[in-house]
Amino acid sequence: MAEKSKYLYDGMRLPFILLVTCFAAWGIAANMTDPLVKVFSKIFSMSTLQASFVQFSYYGAYFCLALPAAFINRRFSYKTGVLVGLGCAICGAFLFYPASQAMTFGFFLMALFMLAGGLSILETSANPFVISMGPEHNATRRLNFAQAFNPVGTNIGVFLAATLILPRLNPATEAERAAMAPDALRAIQVEELSAVMTPYVGFACVLVVIWIAIALIPMPTKREMTAEGHEVHFGATLSRLLKNRHYRFGVIAQFFNVAAQTCVWTFTIQYVQDAIGGTEADAGWYLQASLIIFLVSRFVMVWLMGYLRPAMLLTLMALCGTALCLFAMSSPNIAGVWAVVSISATLSLMFPTIYGIALHGLGDDTKFGAAGLVMAILGGALMPLVHGAVMDAQGAAFSYIVPGLCFLVVAAYGVFDLRSKNRMTAQPAT
Q1: Alpha carbon of residue 150 to chain centroid
Q2: What gap in Å lies between CA 391 and CA 85, rounded to an integer?
Q3: Could you give the CA distance from residue 38 to residue 162 in angstroms, rounded to a whole number?
Q4: Nearest 5 degrees, angle CA 351-CA 356-CA 361?
Q5: CA–CA gap between residue 125 and residue 367 (Å, rounded)
Q6: 356: which residues sit within 8 A by CB, 6+ positions away?
Q7: Is the domain defined by 13-218+234-419 classed in CATH 1.10.3860.10?
Q8: Would you state the pLDDT for residue 429?
Q9: Calpha distance 322→416 (Å, rounded)
Q10: In sequence order, which residues have a C-beta less than 8 Å from that of residue 327 and are 6 or more positions away?
């Protein structure tokens, strides 16, 4: 009984702390990238749909690299996966320097793809790693606690974008840029792209420090230490996962959860400017406020999960998300702006909760199951294109119908879990 009451297995505290820094790290990258849709659309005079390929490249890499990460974890260990992921992310972040010199949108997309590909491997490894560090009965709550430090990173990412990138955008409009002499326009673009490059190169240096720390610390888990062999039976594993209705629905729910989150945060700046005006830098502070709300709400949700079933909270928050999107659509003013900002409170628990619920009881299939849930991040690549197209056609306010519908799918998964007779109820705090 004493073993079951533990939150972490013996000797896992320091490895857990180091992994928490990884959760913060990919939060920095993701939310430093969100404003780039607006940034590149201005620098390169592109439509919102064209600039949305920033998110297509970023989250598309998550889809492409999650399965290779599962093979790495299965064949070697979670620690190996973490180190490989960090290494690829470091290379991608450093590529922002030559991209700023080349001054081409395609080069930046390539750098983003490598950065995000490394983070995909990192996330595919770190999430189940945290789950394996303690008893299964409180795994979802433990993962929510680790994920609570992800919004610390997201706030840092938005802050870096709001202070180092957005204020350095030239105020010239698209029409004014089109009328400029080529040399004058190029001088402006050089300065703006230098502003984009600086925080990413700094981020790469921080990741190098994290990589060294993790490499030097032994990080086995009890489940990995007692595992029998490392043989990979992908076909049989995939067959079992596809037959698991709860897991299948979890992947779908994760797709639409990430889609909603990416759409909301990516287009917050455009919504704010359309609703109340102001510069990109001014609107960026509303995105910062939404991430602060996300951070505080994540810890509140971890506390609530000591008393309520995770699926119950998931359902309620998803329905609140839909309601806030509908309000933002109908009231494109300061009230609508704060509704968009408040959506982050509903998003706070979704990713780790869906992740933990969907992986519950998978046993040896967890590593490939985790890859499927990270591949579901593809929603963040595809749905912003839909959101951007709707925004170009119908305006920023109406486009929030896209995340509103996504939240309904997440709510349906919460109801599905609540109705499943074999699901565990939430455990009290230990």
Answers
A1: 9
A2: 34
A3: 12
A4: 155
A5: 8
A6: 131, 139, 140, 141, 143, 144, 310
A7: no
A8: 39
A9: 18
A10: 335, 336, 339
Across the chain, which has 430 residues, the per-10-residue mean pLDDT values are 55 84 89 82 83 85 86 85 95 94 91 93 87 75 80 84 85 83 89 91 94 85 48 72 88 94 90 86 85 87 83 94 96 94 93 86 77 85 89 90 96 90 44
Sign of CA dihedral 299, 304, 307, 313: negative
Which candidate, 45, 104, 55, 162, places its Cα nearest to that of 388? 55
DSSP for 244-307, please give it.
-HHHHHHHHHHHHHHHHHHHHHHTHHHHHHHHH---HHHHHHHHHHHHHHHHHHHHHHHHHTTT
**Cα torsion 213, 218, 220, 221: sign:** negative
CB-count exposure of residue 389 (10 Å: 0-12, 13-18, 19+): middle
Return the C-alpha torsion angle 282, 283, 287, 288, nearest 10: 0
Query: How many whole angstroms separate alpha carbon 108 and alpha carbon 112?
Result: 6
Distance CA 113, CA 55 (A): 10
Contact 155, 292 (CB under 8 A): yes
| Integer angstrom CA distances of residue 42 from 122, 174, 266, 280, 337 | 32, 7, 15, 10, 22
Task: Note the pTM of the prediction, 2 decimals.
Answer: 0.73
CB 274 within 8 A of CB 332: yes
